[in-house]
Design brief:
Elements: H1 10-27, H2 35-54, E1 62-64, E2 69-71, H3 73-99, H4 110-126, H5 131-149, H6 156-187, H7 192-199, H8 206-224, H9 232-239, H10 242-249, H11 252-267, H12 272-295, H13 300-320, E3 323-324, E4 327-328, H14 332-360, H15 376-379, H16 381-395, H17 401-415, H18 419-445, H19 458-476, H20 479-493
Antiparallel strand pairs: 1-2, 3-4
Helix pairs in contact: 1-2, 1-4, 2-3, 3-4, 3-10, 3-11, 3-14, 3-20, 4-5, 4-11, 5-6, 6-8, 6-9, 7-11, 8-11, 8-12, 9-10, 9-13, 10-14, 11-14, 12-13, 12-18, 13-14, 13-17, 13-18, 14-16, 14-17, 14-19, 14-20, 16-18, 16-19, 17-18, 17-19
Length: 495
Amino acid sequence: MNSMNLLPALPELILIASVPAILLIDLFLPQNRRDVTFGLSILAILGCIAVTFIFPQEKNIAYSFGGAFISDAVSILLKLCTYVAMLFTLVYTRRYINERNLTSGHLGGEFYSLSLFAMLGMMVVISAADFLTMYLGIELMSFPLYALVALKRNDSKAVEAATKFFILGALGSGLLLYGISMLYGATGSLDFIEGARISAYSGISRTILVFGIVFVVAGIAFKLGAVPFHMWVPDVFEGAPTAVTLLIAGAPKLAGFAICLRILVEALLPLAFDWQQMLMIIAILSMALGNVAAIMQKNIKRMLAYSTIAQMGYMLLGMLAGVREGTRVIASTFAYSSAMYYTIVYVLATLGAFGVILMMSGKGLEADRLDDFRGLNRRNPWYALIMLVCMFSFAGVPPLVGFFGKFAVFQALVDAGLIWLAIVGIVFAVIGAFYYLRVVKFMYFDEPADERKISVPLDMSVALGVNGLLIIVLGILPGSLLDWCVFAINSAFLL
């Protein structure tokens, strides 16, 4: 292991250098030239993509910073997906923030710089090889998001959402840190692999380890927005500017999956029987509350918030399917791969759905009510089709990519002998299909309240088209992405 090898962390180093430079350049830009900041942010992300492809580490595992930072097949795949998600996010949000003067003043570029800092936190989380690096990455990801939620400083709803987000986020971080301290006290190591090796010994105090696991899982559930630690999700989704809501709902979920994978599988697999029971309860409650509560919502952002809660439940089903009675099983590789696959396709559908919402949110109009989507097919059939594809993907309608995501998770549950849990998941999926189909009904069967045509910038229109096409193509040809996920899990964890 070459601890001074900085090559695995080169994308992060590029981003660390780029963000201050972008901020400095933005300081001297007039209000009408803020698109330069947008272009530089896009270039920074493209630079990260280029470096990841130029210096791949797929065939081996590389460490940096004394073994605290890892580059493996899992980190490469999740980072590439994060880059793509952030590219879509910035393209979708550009018009929105410009029309609402969120880029005004001397710090007008703060939306882009804070978004890049949040992405840097996601990248650190994805490549974390010990608990300390993981915690630092989580905080680096979280703090920019806290600030972005309160970007509309004069909006009481946004300020209230930011306050709730910060307080409950700090509570989640505190629980996670306390759990990490207990695990460190029991094992004497912060390293994931070393901690897993030590915790497998019978001489370790199991009581302390179990208590540590309880706090760690609670902290993870807070960050994912899973029940019963979901309280912040609906209020933050509704209260934050729609551009920030997309930023929270999309790419960070990839980092959330990485947290689960690194901590629960890499560090705590010998104690899997203990955390499996917790995940089972959290997953069932998340699917139940998320799908049922979403039916009653009239605000589409709040509806998608409860949808996110339910979707995190399905992802956790894949995570817990990888173990049986605390031991590895044959299905483990496919189970963790299915959870990764499900997270990626969820993020893809989320990007498309919020892209359409932002497309409809013209100057002076927040298209955040379900009624705003009435008759969208008459106003713009193309964007209505993209929204339909996203809703059907969420609902798990074949042959879209969301169907194969759910199918992979349920198959992993059956392979692990948890047939009853697969049935529970299917039942809640059928219930959840109702509120997704309601959006489709509004778009295609209701009279529009506004007959005006919708016009959007070319880059946004192209991005939406590519987004919708990916959902369809990956649904028709799901094998390539799923095989990549299986390869990544096998290469990184040798399961």
